[in-house]
Amino acid sequence: MMATLFDNILEGVIADVAAREEVVPFKEIKRLSRNVPPARDVLSVLQKPGCCVIAEIKRADPVTNHVMPVADPATLARLCEESGACIIGCQTEGRRFNGSLEDVRTVKENVSAPVWCKSFIVDPYQVHEARYYGADLVALQVAALEQDRLVALLDRVHSLGMEAIVEVASEEEADRGVTAGARIIGVDARDMRTRTIDRGRFPLIAPGLPSSVVKVALSGVSTPVDLMRYAGAGADAVVVGEALSRSTTPDRLCRSLVAAGMHPACPSAR
């Protein structure tokens, strides 16, 4: 079977982690990660009334083959926070998304909102790395992890005071995430294996999630209408990434989404 984009990304991630560990051994990154200020409270932010807007800063998208003109992530992050975004995310994968952990550090130093390290975490080393660089929240893709590894990584994330958006694309993956102890489930409309977007995944999967789980809609958000549709299906938060990074007026786009998420007509705001 031919390797997919997702497979190629994971292969690159594994190689890059091994290279970084050659420079900074696991024992050292573990020590460093436990000597940084405590993580910011993510759950209290996501559990507020309304549909929260998570602004994701990314420099490229290999699914759509777009390169975004993000010259200054700190400025974009501040604009998004000032426009009402509750969490700021940074895509850190370097080979396909042109991201880096330095973007997390830069953003963390310039906003007071929680910061999300949006990466492809397959190894405990990356969890400690993310915490050291300032992440309050990380991403764990169920499709990339065996169940034992998912449970172990989630436990490690929580032990460092962080939260994880456990990303799923099917009801089976959602069940695995809940069983692993996820407190936040993100339903991803984007399929990196087929390079397609299916906004119908969230309304299919979200109703089966426990009420105690924070529900996040990933991908497919570029307008207030998109946000309202996801909120109507039970989303507590949405992630806006490519549309934000490509916009010439990201503050205006962010404000319009935040306003929709707080509008009385938005189910999450009631």
TrEMBL record:
One of its GO terms (molecular function) is indole-3-glycerol-phosphate synthase activity. It comes from the Bacteria. The keyword Amino-acid biosynthesis applies. The keyword Repressor does not apply. Residues 7-255 form the Indole-3-glycerol phosphate synthase domain. Keywords: Amino-acid biosynthesis, Aromatic amino acid biosynthesis, Decarboxylase, Lyase, Tryptophan biosynthesis. It is an enzyme of class 4 (lyase). Its EC number is 4.1.1.48. It catalyses: 1-(2-carboxyphenylamino)-1-deoxy-D-ribulose 5-phosphate + H(+) = (1S,2R)-1-C-(indol-3-yl)glycerol 3-phosphate + CO2 + H2O. Pathway: Amino-acid biosynthesis; L-tryptophan biosynthesis; L-tryptophan from chorismate: step 4/5. InterPro entries: Aldolase_TIM, Indole-3-glycerol_P_synth, Indole-3-glycerol_P_synth_dom, RibuloseP-bd_barrel. This is indole-3-glycerol-phosphate synthase. It comes from Corynebacterium glucuronolyticum ATCC 51866. The gene is trpC.
